[in-house]
Write a structure and sequence with these properties.
Shape: elongated
Distance between the termini: 52 Å
Number of strands: 2
Number of helices: 2
Low-confidence stretches: none
Length: 97
Amino acid sequence: MEQLVTIEIFGRPYTFKAESEATKAKEVVDFLKREITKVETQQSGKSPGITKLAILILAALNIANENFDLKMNHSELLEQISERSTRLIRRLDDCLH
């Protein structure tokens, strides 16, 4: 069910449509805010004049990198499961014949 969700980042409200339930949308927003805070903290000593846009871009890159890693791990896991399943099926077939 689509619903409007409003979040505030750097003091500005942003409203978007969420196709998921409110709880999940809130979790996603909280995750984004934590990532922004993490980048702000990491960059505060390194780049004191870093712009809000740069912080958002770095946070987006961190999230994209994490997503990419998770997809790669997921693909590897599926491949391992497939290989193990094939070996188990072969063993079972060998025992039955």
